[in-house]
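Whether sequence alone determines local backbone shape is best considered at the level of individual chains. The sequence in question and its structure tokens are set out directly beneath this paragraph.

===
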Amino acid sequence: MGGKALNKYGVFTERKNTDEFLIIGESIQEVLQYYFLREHKILLETHVVRCYRTKADHGDLDLLVKITPEMNVNYRLVIDLMFLPKAINSNGGVYSFDYQGFQVDFIPIPEHKWETAKIYYSYDPLGNIMGKTYHKFGLSYGWEGLFYKYRNAHGTNSENILLTNDARRIFEFGGYDYDRYLKGFDTLEEIFKFCINSKYFDAEMFQMENLKSIDKKRNRKRGSYHLFLNYIKDNGITTKYAFEENKDTYLTAIETAFPESDLGFKIIGLRQIDKVNNFIAQKFNGDLVMLWLPDLQGKELGTAIGKFKKDLGDSYNEFIINSDYETIRERFMKVYNGENQ
């Protein structure tokens, strides 16, 4: 997205004014709908991602395409056949191609995530900005919905638990006015004001120096995000919200807001899995193997451990839990020496 996805193929697209943008959007949808009706007897549902109404020109067109269970289609082949582009770039499930000198991003969306995706992708950079607010609660907001990010005993994200894909409830939890959102936005400034009006708005958390490295890298390339930062600076906005460092503080509020997610029950189950995994890791690990075989290190060590786990297969956890240290060592050495084949 952004109009530069095809540059690496030597294909350079141009910006289009709003009238041209709307004509291209209508043409693309008509072609796709005709093809799917003719070839697959499917009434295809598509959606051009919304932007603020006074936007003068556009670098690309984001087209969402609803995917239903009966569809079994090679989208790249469809694009190549129906639009004859000079290049197609596939990245993360998004197909970018050129059409009438303009970049089109074809984005397949499963039908059960359709409404959430239409909301999330609209009015750039709204979804990106909102996502940073939810992150402060230990949550993740994207086109698939709102998720609780479960972190295991090592502090790494190991499971995303769906809370809801109901847009109104997502907005309300983040302090955003969903009814105002439904009216749309005439200007980029209106989008910025909408974000700032959240009761959880904190100007500092959006600054580049406060972003994680991967987020910082992404937002350096997003012109609309820089315009948002400039808006905050130029208008002297210093609003602060005292978020808790310990995100577990918000668990009760999250469970109360989304009871159907069974968040508490799922977290208990994941914590139990963590305990078992930690117990297994203490009984068998690379440090122990190096005590048995001091010269085995690096890549060779990893290969030997992988071979041992593969040999045990689905019974690995049960074997480690129920075996004593010497039994584990003997079994490992047999596998390592090829005696267990």
About this structure: The chain is about 45% helix and 15% strand.
